[in-house]
Amino acid sequence: MIAGVAEDEEKWLSAGIAGLQQNAFYMHRALDSNNLKDALKYSAQMLSELRTSRLSPHKYYELYMRAFDELRKLEIFFKEESNRGCSIVELYELVQHAGNILPRLYLLCTVGSVYIRSKEAPAKDVLKDLIEMCRGIQHPVRGLFLRSYLSQVSRDKLPDIGSEYEGDADTAMDAVEFVLQNFTEMNKLWVRMQHQGPARDKEKREKERSELRDLVGKNLHVLSQIEGVDLDMYRETVLPRVLEQVVNCKDEIAQYYLMDCVIQVFPDEYHLQTLETILGACPQLQPSVDIKTVLARLMERLSNYAASSAEVLPVFFQVEAFAKLNIAIGKVIWFSF
Questions:
Q1: Run means of pLDDT, 10 residues per run, the chain, 337 residues
Q2: How many whole angstroms separate alpha carbon 58 and alpha carbon 104?
Q3: How far is the CA of 299 from the CAs of 158, 272, 306, in angstroms?
Q4: pTM, entire model
């Protein structure tokens, strides 16, 4: 039976790739002749292949990557159209007439990337519009990949401090807010995958979810790269918002993975100065989460940081890092009995 399902899935994937390639061929022909109307028509039909619900996340990823490669070519065409005098604002409005919502949103994100680059509108306004529009897809797998695409095309266009897309005094906060919102929505979709389908497929779903975890975790990496995220912003906004989502999702897989992500991607100095906050989240995690390993990885990072320079040791004593870690470890050992 399992072999039969795998064979069916290969057939569905092959059919999806064939449909995508056929429409991509006609899209290329339209691009070569600068036929915008046909380019949009065939690109929308090409992207309609991503509406499928028949593929596992692993197979869906194969289909998505082929569409992604074609969208990069389409984005280059949109840039050239903009350089030739085509109004990017009109193009942004035009793609919103694509028939089905999923192709429409992929096209909107693609044109939105060019729109931001043109600087005809503030980056924060375009990003806010795109992230709100993406709420239209609530299917877990389709929504995850759509938001992953949005993250991919926008990561070098965030209105960060020092960026060419920098805005007003709150520019770093605008960048942070966009990434935090995308992270929150992606995590909700990822967690919802666990509750799709019969209980007997629980292990299969957990494996599929593990394969997609990096799509969610990449948002935390993007947050850690934003220049405007200094210690104060991390302590007051970024960490509390991330931990709020981690705790509230009440999902063992998400909680363990995301706590590990936080520990790995943000600077040691930030962990040291926010130790109480991150340790305070541990008792709020699901009982099945391996908190011992989470704490061990945090301790390893801080130990390496302490050993890296004698200058940082006074800070450890100042924030009572060792005492706080001992208390946290003691609680974990106590509750494990």
A1: 69 97 98 94 96 93 97 95 90 88 97 95 96 96 97 96 88 95 97 80 87 96 96 97 97 97 97 94 93 92 90 89 84 58
A2: 24
A3: 33, 10, 10
A4: 0.93
